[in-house]
Amino acid sequence: MSFESFGIEDLPIRDELRGKSPYGAPQLDVPVRLNTNENPYPLPEPLVERIAERVREAARALNRYPDRDAVELRTRLAEYLTRTGGHPVGAGNVWAANGSNEVIQQLLQTFGGPGRSAIGFEPSYSMHALIARGTGTRWITGPRDEDFTIDLPAAEKAIAEHRPDVVFVTTPNNPTGGAVPSETVLALYEAAQAAKPSMVIVDEAYVEFSHKGSLLPLLEGRPNLVISRTMSKAFGAAGLRLGYFAAHPAVVDAVQLVRLPYHLSSITQATALAALEHTDTLLGYVEQLKSERDRLVAELRAAGYEVTEPDANFVQFGRFADSHAAWRKILDRGVLVRDNGVPGWLRVTAGTPAENDAFLDAIRELKKEQE
Ligand code: PMP
């Protein structure tokens, strides 16, 4: 084989990576991008100024490694969780990394890995399965009901049968949008403890947008429960790459065994600390997005579409005989939504009122075309 035609399959890569595709939401340059559940509002100018100030200060000490334990940041994150999550936590309960994707990777490196398995109830956030693969953790696809809620008896049965080491629960779920009732999470936790015991990771990336509250209070008395969060959505800081989790301090101690030293740069820590100083302003945008999300639901229904009950900053809508063809037609009208591969359904992120209007115009036209 020639050097020129040499490709990935010619490399001695791990067998489980062969023929697989990377995570790849399209990054297309179109006028209205409502496909990756980002917050459409740029950070407010006073916060941009504060970030610049904090980063300038951090830059003066860039010759040194950052605070490896990110103590100040974890303290501020714990204060935020305590204030908004209905349960007191301290810095010792909180761990942070580069996006909740890295948080999940560290958790799977610690609690999953070769010879171990993780279960998620699909459709759900596709990175859980991809990170499992990347960490050598066997992935098990758990069931969901027709209406995309978790079918509890079937889920309990799957846990008892497969005895996974890690159980993922995404609430609100991506891409279907609904929050999982706390009784369901409690029952899954019990099932997971009876089967193994195993770790239960509750991914609350979108919880600030939910009609229901955080499941943080469930941490009380449950050392194998982890609640994962991110600043990518509610804090409008997807570019920052800052995720975190809350759990028993023993879990924080455990992930120290796999985290890379100095994984969170001083620039990241400084920027996140500045954003946390502006929490109230940012949560004000969350309120606007929640009402825009509710408007999208009402207008989609009025236009004759079905919508699955949404608790996040996005809405799953359908049904389409060919969802990919519908995705393309919406894109032809300058609006990028997401085809998550759920047959019959697409997902739209709540944008600014103008972006949402553009989306609604596009899908109303599409409906007319289909009639
Ligand atoms: N969890 C869920 C459910 C998500 O949808 C996302 C982002 N799409 C993430 C985690 C990852 O977010 P980040 O790495 O930006 O924190």
UniProtKB/TrEMBL annotation:
Aminotransferase class I/classII large domain residues: 32-363
Entries under Pfam families matching the protein: Aminotran_1_2
Keyword check for Transferase: yes
Catalytic EC class: transferase
Span of the signal peptide: none
EC number: 2.6.1.9
Annotated spans, Disordered: 18-41
Pathway: Amino-acid biosynthesis; L-histidine biosynthesis; L-histidine from 5-phospho-alpha-D-ribose 1-diphosphate: step 7/9
Keyword list, A-Z: Amino-acid biosynthesis, Aminotransferase, Histidine biosynthesis, Pyridoxal phosphate, Transferase
CDD domains reported in the protein's UniProt record: AAT_like
Positions of post-translational N6-(pyridoxal phosphate)lysine modification: K233
Enzymatic reactions: L-histidinol phosphate + 2-oxoglutarate = 3-(imidazol-4-yl)-2-oxopropyl phosphate + L-glutamate
The keyword Transferase is annotated on this UniProt entry: yes
Cofactor: pyridoxal 5'-phosphate
Family the entry assigns: Belongs to the class-II pyridoxal-phosphate-dependent aminotransferase family. Histidinol-phosphate aminotransferase subfamily.
Subunit structure: Homodimer.
HAMAP family noted in UniProt: HisC_aminotrans_2
Protein name: Histidinol-phosphate aminotransferase
Gene from which the chain derives: hisC
